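In response to reviewer comment 3 from the previous cycle, which asked for concrete evidence that the modeling workflow produces usable outputs, we include below a single protein chain processed end to end. The sequence was submitted unchanged, and the resulting structure tokens are shown without manual editing.
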Amino acid sequence: MSGAGVSQGAPAPSVPLAARTRGLRKVYRGTVAVDQVDLEVPEGAVLGMLGPNGSGKTTTIRMLLGLVRPTEGEVELLGHAMPDGAAHALPDVGALVEGPGFHPFLSGRENLLRMAAAEPRLTSAGIPGAVEHAIERVGLAGAAHRRYRGYSLGMKQRLGLASALLVPRKMIVLDEPTNGLDPAGTREIRRIIGELHAEGVTVLVSSHLLAEVEATCTHVAVLHDGTVVAQGELSELLESGSPALLVSTPDTDKAVEALREHRITTKLSPDGVRVDLSSATAPEVLAMLIRAEVQVYEAKRARTGLEDLFARLTQHDPATPDGLPVIDEGVTS
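The workflow returned the following structure tokens.
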């Protein structure tokens, strides 16, 4: 794929990296799960890893954390080669991967106390306070005394996140953190990710909820068929499609005819027309419409939405070969 801000391989590093992979490949019994993944996670970024089921997201995360050894390629986490450097890197990394696993007959608090006892940077005296702080932070104070086996899926996700937040981390890795959460719980996760970002913590989020990624992430990496098809800053990726103007008008047929006379690509949209700005500026387009006596109620720039970008990168749509689909965002008057 071409376009400003879109990289199919690894972007040129301009900031220190919290994690990186080079030529990452994983083969399971003849099946290629990950193939030549070059991924870069800038320090302090909130990077959303997107991809359809089977695209290699979780396998990549597991190799990044040293849980799985790559068939080929290199992995660095917080400056340490993985998996050999796991003992040095992982104390600074909190992770929730493929759903949390806890003892079903223990309460949420008891499970966290057991996990906190294994944290090398927590003293015995500091364990109770760390556990209570994590419970409060994820909104589980009212259910911490209940047995884990009676938890809902959303509560299990909260407890898993609490385990990742028992001590201050340099990096947090979350695999589908909002899975099973209601809207209020999803907002809480968004708030926590925002707090971590403000504290300078690097966050890697694997998710299929595009709206949540668009609301919380600073960077995005899109995986498809086991490889990275695009990565970079979210704002740049969303601006990578062809520039266009959305014009709200009741005179859609007249607008299309007037602009096509000037060889300007114009298409109907739900509220009017979408005008390609590759060969004309927005003021020039508006002047043409006014001269043609087209009523213009509103005009605003069109920007690629993450859902459309994701579909464009992971699907082959012959009907849209030139540029990306768009959604209405931003205002130009």
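The chain has a mean pLDDT of 85. We consider this sufficient to address the reviewer's concern, and the full set will be provided in the supplementary archive.
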